[in-house]
DNA sequence: AATGAATGAGCTTTCATTCAT
DNA sequence: GATGAATGAAAGCTCATTCAT
């Protein structure tokens, strides 16, 4: 791939992350092109459908989160994910409305993140900082749910405190 | 208002609750009209914009929930709200995408529900079933967040257990 | 159906017959709308896809031809069909490129016309004006082929003479 | 011209003949490039527009047919042309839709083929195998028309029989 | 009051053609 | 001379909303 193409591809991805992160399903590919400073056809050259673009954005995001999970503590990572999540959810909504499937590479990347959380959970249970009678499904569901917490950081912090207490042995 | 007009209005509201509850922002006003057995113009006569229709649906829903809160126990109502939420969230998403504002009567109804939850919380704290160092903002945020828990009922139950334990004194 | 809708539908069909008859697959639905004096969405309300519009045009045309076949003589009808054909072919091409299928109502109407030609052929063979060792498939193929004869009327006439002589006993 | 350029040009022409022969106006220049194993810009370097490419394909085809006419018998060549025609017609349609004119070198090549057919016709009339009261315009029109005969080979054969009988003295 | 036809702006996607490497 | 990335105009189609009956 040529260097200018690669650069454009990266810029499109970053812009798309922002645009769909704010606008969700209502945002348009055209706006991505405009804000990336390229023609609309350039976007479609790199990502043949809107769903493909959104999928690429999601994968990049999931992979970044996975990398960040390495060596992190369970509660810290939980906290980080929650703070990071709102825009990711909007992107996921847009992906779903664009016909995004649950069997493509985005789902695969999502599964990897889930496994990373699972590993942190196991360590934490081993270390005695998380009660042993909870399993990944409910913990992950709680994580995803808490991620949708809106409002100011103070509220989010106190929500996390309640959840942490609920998870403590 | 003529009685047939009133009947139409009610039927449109019910159908819209179902249609947008399932389809979210992707559902169309025309489908509401079709399934309500009225012309599209009738829908727009009763609700001048799509946002207005969605707002009316949300208000009705919030009011029903408020009524149900009367005399209920905190944890029971919490549990009920969570089980009831998914379709309401879809409607809220549609409302937002249709340009729904946070200053209209829907927000007002939402605030009433929040206050009802506040009342139940105060009672529960009085009765000693909820710890005293949490306040409505974080409890309500947690409620909204938990409402987005997807997946099967078993997972949702275990999530609620964790949250309940976090809220216990 | 309301009378204004019916009138628009008819005008759209007539205009489409002309537009696609001239332009073939290259003509656009937007041009039909413009020349019919309606908005583009009106065309799509009456005919949900471009293929559906073209199919309706074809059916109308086939049906008109069938009606004209009643009581006509074989050679006269053959001659008439050939003169009438060029624009119909363009429409058929457009229909095919728009994804038109061979199993819909247009194919059905086409089959009816073919049967009408078959009836005239049988009569003519009975009357001794067409040789008996030819059957409908080759006669119809020849008809369709001859229909694509371009050029001036004189040439077309002389082509028809040759074909007539080939079909004579 | 460099030898690799010449080789590319030839390969592009052959591939284009196949691609447009199958796909007609719906085929794209990009597919030609892909299947020829060259970049899209290379195609446009050799042929500045899509119409120019199609024109070159047509000319090559007409010239090949002209060469084949040398020394052939009238009816045999007629039969050969008809069998060969379908893909050529698709290419001609594409040429027309791409804005191909009737005054360029393609028309010139077409005229040469027509003259070759004229020569064969004169010979056949001299030899008494074709009636004397027909002239090139109608014979050529009939040839072009018959070329569009679709369907299976059996039907095409019987069509040719009828036409041959019509042309016999 | 109710209807359904009409509207136009907007979306995603495609394609012939040009430009920089 | 060849490449592939970029382009913008245009296509088909949808939807909230308005108008005439």
SSE diagram, text form:
The structure is a homotetramer of 169-residue chains.
Chain A: H1 3-23, H2 29-36, H3 40-46, H4 50-69, H5 74-97, H6 105-127, H7 136-147, H8 153-167
Chain A binds a DNA duplex (21 and 21 nucleotides) through helix 1 and helix 3.
Describe the protein:
The structure is a homotetramer of 169-residue chains. The first copy, chain A, has 169 residues and is an all-alpha fold. The first copy, chain A, has a domain at 51-167: Orthogonal Bundle (Tetracycline Repressor, domain 2), CATH 1.10.357.10. Chain A has helices at 3-23, 29-36, 40-46, 50-69, 74-97, 105-127, 136-147, 153-167. The N and C termini of chain A lie far apart (52 Å).
Please tag this protein with its features.
homotetramer, 169 residues, mainly alpha, Tetracycline Repressor, domain 2, 8 helices, 0% strand, DNA-binding
| Highest-level CATH class of the domain at 51-167 in chain A | Mainly Alpha
The low-pLDDT segments of chain A are: none
CATH architecture of the domain at 51-167 in chain A: Orthogonal Bundle
| Ends distance of chain A | 52 Å
Work out the strand percent of chain A: under 5%
Question: Biggest chain pair contact, residues each?
Answer: A-B, 31 and 31 residues
Q: What is the gyration radius of chain A calculated from CA atoms?
A: 18 Å
Largest sheet data of chain A: none
CATH superfamily of the domain at 51-167 in chain A: Tetracycline Repressor, domain 2
Helix content of chain A: over 70%
Number of strands of chain A: 0
* Count of helix runs of chain A: 8
SSE pattern of chain A, N- to C-terminal:
HHHHHHHH
**Per the principal axes of the C-alpha atoms, what is the gross shape of chain A?**
elongated
The protein's oligomeric status is homotetramer
Structural class of chain A comes to mainly alpha
The CATH topology of the domain at 51-167 in chain A is Tetracycline Repressor, domain 2
| Overall pLDDT level of chain A | 92
């Amino acid at each position: 791939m040529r260097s200018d193409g690669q650069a454009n591809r990266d810029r499109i991805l970053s812009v798309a992350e922002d645009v769909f992160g704010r606008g969700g399903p209502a945002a348009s590919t055209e706006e991505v092109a405009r804000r990336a400073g390229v023609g609309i056809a350039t976007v479609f050259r790199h990502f043949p459908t809107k769903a493909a673009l959104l999928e690429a954005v999601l994968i990049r995001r999931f992979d970044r989160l996975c990398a960040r999970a390495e060596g992190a503590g369970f509660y810290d990572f939980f906290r980080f994910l929650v703070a990071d999540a709102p825009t990711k959810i909007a992107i996921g909504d847009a992906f779903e409305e664009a016909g995004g499937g649950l069997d493509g590479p985005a789902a695969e990347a999502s599964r990897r993140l889930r496994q990373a959380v699972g590993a942190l959970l196991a360590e934490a249970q081993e270390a005695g900082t998380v009660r042993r009678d909870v399993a990944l499904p409910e913990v992950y569901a709680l994580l995803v749910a808490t991620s949708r917490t809106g409002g100011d950081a103070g509220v989010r912090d106190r929500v996390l405190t309640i959840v942490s207490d609920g998870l403590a042995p």
